Amino acid sequence: MSDENSDSAPPQDRIKLNVGGKLFETTVSTLQSGGPDSLLSILSTRPDPNHNNPIFIDRDPDIFSVLLSLLRSNRLPSTALRRFSHLELLDEAAYYGIEHHLRSATSPPAFSALDASLSTTLRPPSHPFPSAFSAVSDDGSLIVAHGGQISAFDWTLSPAGTVRTHADDISSLRRVWSETAAIGSSASPGLHFYDVSGGRHVGSVHWSDPSDPRVYKARVGAITDSADSVFASFECPHRENCILSVDKSTLKITAEIGRQSGGSAKAMTPEKLSHLPDHHLLFGCAISCGAFGFSGYVRLWDVRSGDVVWETNEPGSGRSSRFGDPFADVDVDPGESAIFKVCSKSGDLAVVDLRRLGEDPWVYLEEKNPSLRNPGGGGTSILLHCYRKQVFVSREGGLEVWSQMEEEERTEEASPSERIYRRNFVDKEEDASRGVIRRMEGGGNRLFISREGVEGIEVWESSNFSGAISVD
To answer: Is the pTM of this model over 0.70?
Structure first.
């Protein structure tokens, strides 16, 4: 085998390799393209008194052929992933020190919802109906809770381990370290940590207050984390609830945030939490749907003091909060410093700038295209998720996205409410017919979706052949 450029390369730039008994001839520059720390680059500069003798490498020659093609063209041959698994390729790439090249070649393109489609469905082993999942924003890997178990999928979406937990029903899940997941159960108390790859229980945290007998058997409702802390909302049987801050290194409780009691809408346990590192804030919200429609709240706490710095309650707060049309779901986009809500009856989308909070700061986004204007709300099954400057809204089984319009005159300092958003449908009619979307979460260049009563988790990715401009 010879390199495409080796015929024109001078003899001193050519190099021969014997990989597992198969001869290869390429150029020094091709091998050095793997990076100065790669094994191939080091071998290419090794002094060789007998230049005609090939360098012997005791590895698989067929996979080496694929990796050599990767170094030559920065892409894999079209048949590579049909012949070899991601794991086989990754193991060999790691041996040669060029795994970053392989990751770049096999990762999906930058995620743009305007060109996203269902690429595959992950089905966890033994119990394919997921109860919760958590995606990693950096690389698109995933952990899934199913039937009291947690299964991990790496950045290639290959299985990376399963651990059996003590819980029969995992309702809250968050990856807090590369191998460790924090879980909560609606059926059993406590916040628990499990090493998924090692298959073991790491530790547990329980909320207790010796001075208050109402605080016992507290269950976890939502989990998020920061660089050094885990935040979890706890609720007791008598509806006493709070958010606990837990130190990651010691698994000790460091603070009690937002303690409240009672069964009113304003005192519900936060069911969604997000940490906003740029603002030192913790976002939390709780929403319920009853005979009289939706009600709930949004709050921001200062994580350093534990004080509430802003809150809104619906229905009924603010002069123009559309009384009678409260939010059905709320989410925060930390990168854009914005909170979005979707109204339960009109289905309208509104945004608030975290830097311009006030009594009634909501600005309602307007769809300019008459053919895409929202016909109304989505009943009781409305879901909202913010990811990478894109706002996803699910109404029953359908999925739409609001993405920012890039305009030359817009500055980076512009408020989210001053930016122009365009609404588009992400899915097709046959996609929506698969069932009601119950959870969606972005990770890496992927969007993960689970549906009510449907096996597995859908993985949505953009196309390599897209002509769309990414909003990332």
So the answer is: yes
